[in-house]
């Protein structure tokens, strides 16, 4: 690690990095395939996972792209399920592999941040193909299509589908990890910490005899507490009034995600009710829903190992969101690494972080780095 790049590293991180040596007989160069598989096209494209409905009744197909790296005959490869970012409001499972279309009008503000994040993170995580790990990019209903918990139902349906069809695709059903960035990291984390929670499982796509659990989770700067995003933002990075508009108002993506966008509503209202402990409020059930949708409240000792990365200059998702998750995991006795590039924004975290993440992920899935 370069001096000055690391702002916070947990004890678990130090122990994990100390143990992060190549497996016997393996090395970084030996593990990689001759070509750069980041440019590989899907082995199975536009696979239909489930037919669902949006909140307005319109039909919606959930799809995924499956990339299987070259492998020895009859070998089963581990899997990384990737959940795209975009503030729950945009982005698709196709990521950088989408058919390029004529550029849309220029994006500004947080939309531009989210668009850049979705593209760069997709490439970073697709690099697992160069380490003999399958890459599966999955779909979910956006917040304009359906309110929570539709999104977590969709992502869990995708993991169940992967497990159910593992033999068909040459995948190892016992070695599945999940990762995401920003809003995708929120959903990946929510899935990882709520294994066995029937309230958050859903029945989309069926395959209910299969588990949606994962062996490991990578969270790149994801929201973990929907109620506290605005007050946790560093005022040096975003003024409090702007943070309130971004995260507390009825126009906030969190408010839209919860379906709480009527007059006098928004996440800011829910936080005030929660802080007052007003269980008599007609909106108390929405406070409970916001907490159900917040991974930091759902952590148990049964959560899988975590790798968390968050930039010190993130002006969209407060770094405190990751600090709180890391504390909850540590308090529950869950193995975790938390890395912070003090200069990183909401997006690219730097090669030191990305390489440490990939080394950790390979170790969790039992492959050479």
Automatic annotation (TrEMBL):
Pfam families: BD-FAE. Residues 120-329 form the BD-FAE-like domain. It comes from the Bacteria. Residues 1-24 form the signal peptide. InterPro entries: AB_hydrolase_fold, BD-FAE-like_dom, GDXG_lipolytic_enzyme. Keywords: Hydrolase, Signal. GO terms for molecular function: hydrolase activity. Transmembrane segments: none annotated. Gene3D superfamilies: alpha/beta hydrolase (3.40.50.1820). This is Acetyl esterase/lipase. It comes from Selenomonas ruminantium.
